[in-house]
Amino acid sequence: MASKGLSFLRDVIAGPGAPPAPPTQAGGEQRAPQPLDVADGRARAVIDTVRPMVDGGRFAAKRVAGERIDIEAHVFTDGHDVPRVMLQWWKEGSERREELPMKLRYNDEWHAHFVAPAPGRYRYTVAAWVDAFESWHHELERRVEPDDIRIAARVGALEITAAAERASGGDREELAAWALALEEGAADTLLDASALKALALDEQHAATARRHPDRRLETRFGVELPLMVERERARFSSWYELFPRSAGSAPGGHGTLADVAARLPLIAAMGFDIVYLPPIHPIGRAQRKGRNNALAAEAGDVGSPWAIGAEEGGHKEILPELGTLADFRALVADAATLGLEVALDIAFQCAPDHPYVKQHPSWFRWRPDGSVQYAENPPKKYQDIYPFNFESEDWPALWNELKSVIDHWIAQGVKVFRVDNPHTKSFAFWEWAINEVTRAHPEVIFLAEAFTRPKVMHRLAKLGYSQSYTYFTWRNSKEELTDYFTELTKPPGVDYFRPNVWPNTPDILHASLQGGLEPTFKARLILAATLAASYGIYGPAYELTEYRPRGPSSEEYLDSEKYQLRHWNWDPDAGLRPLITRVNEIRRTNPALQDNRSLKFLPIDNAHLIAYMKQSEDGSNVIVTVVNLDPWNAQAGWLALDPRDLGLPDDKPFQMHDLLTDQRFTWHGRRHYVLLEPHRMPAHVLAVRWRLRDERDFDYYL
User: Fold this and answer.
1) Do 469 and 408 fall within a single domain?
2) Which residue, among 695, 687, 672, 699, has the nearest Cα to 616 in the 3D structure?
3) Known catalytic membership, residue 420
4) How many independent structural domains does the chain possess?
5) Active-site residue among 241, 353, 401, 449?
6) FRET partner for 562 with CA separation of 20 to 30 A, picked from 122, 138, 465, 689?
7) How far apart are CA 114 and CA 93, in angstroms?
8) Exactly one of 259, 420, 495, 630 is catalytic; which is it?
9) Is position 365 within any domain?
């Protein structure tokens, strides 16, 4: 075998005819994929798991375009040989597969990352094999006996010869010459063993050999894992909800889409990027609800926008009092000029007089008395709403029609949808519909409004919802907030469930807000905007601190605009609007607040104070937030924060800049005193200020 190798090496160096085509290629474009199941029992590399992996690869992990995704694989082999591990990723439908080497960190855990450049659907997996060259190289590093080194050099010459046979061009010649030098050096008893070892461990030659591995016994992970890549707004967004019919300037007058357009500059100036409109469709007259959810409507009552459909049409039409389809397209265009997007409500349900009820009676559940089963969530009853029957024999037509509603509004320029109660509709339908829509329109974002059981909420996120409502509204104590947001920012949920937190909605006026205490409204706003990368408020009710419930123990607003017109104060300086503007500006200018993964709660020795930290991926932006949860009293405490966790030396002072009040504090050491008076400002949002000039010198702006 050795003589054959030497003959081959001399032929290569002499430059005979064209070399045979290499069977594999490492790096860059990958060879045609092999079957996922291991067919050769000689394949010894074991790929135990790959992360992130959602439900064994049944569902996609999520990232946004330009965001790095870190892949971890647990790979090992029997004995002491060294595995070689490669990450492979590609866009669905593309023949090109990118491949990256994974690096061993510790405990057989291999790591690599990639960045998907554009929204769409991707796949990734891991390939591994026992690398004979790398195993030899690793063994040789530990050998010290001259005879051992000489034998090892001859073994290496064979491995390098094999690599040369797989190579071409200059690599082929370089490896052939290296192998020949090792073979001849091992035979030269006058050559010092240390010199032979140095030649064998030459890193430049080794790098060439690594480009031509023997992958015949390669193992591939058994699943090509899906990845859903969306645009940045799926990860970071600020929502403002308003009812168009209450956007008018005259008390008692029905607002229009043109009135909404007149409100857009104020909403944009407050720093929001999505303006969300409840349903804008014709409202049913049959079984119409009256003010404060009264069962019987009186003359002039406008009904609930979620009771969709009337003589004028259904889900593809606009309530005539609001305007026309042309008015809506103009609104979308006006919003875009201000950096806003219009989000529409998708509520798949019907008023009793919706055209669907007569045209497609099989799409509804009929009771023995000949009436249609209306929606119920005991003790709540919604006599003005008919749910669809997703077990209808005519379900394919129902599915296609409902998807066509989404397609219709995409055609009008809508790219963001808030979906009403998706957990009361077929999960199979949502998986199909969202997949179909986002394959054609990867820029579309879906928000799931599902205040339901945790596993149900997570299932909807897995099915493709970009964002999800949360239990934030009902998490008010330090312990509740800490436990809940720790859960939201840890695997596996963090890889597919993106929280969107709201301190209020048209349906929910939490008891904590019903006292009308301005410090509570401020604290809840700051918590929402800094704990989560996406948040929203229902306005103008929130910024004007609307606090009156419909009755004792009720979370419904009194005189809720779900059932009537309201007239609001649209003064830019009214209520909490200046604070909201500042908070949204802080979010936009601090990358640390634009993601959820870095959230870390900090110890502070006062049950009324909650503290947490976020930092950008590169560590250059660090935000520490401290909130006083007591709306009546000043609270003080000692916060534990080690400067070394910020990349700072622990023996020098550093500056904390409160972005809410522009105050600056000098901190030193690992324990820091905080005092918050709720009637002045119930929170600090602190930016760590430093500039690293070199390893030894910090400028602290002091």
Assistant:
1) yes
2) 687
3) yes
4) 3
5) 449
6) 465
7) 18
8) 420
9) no
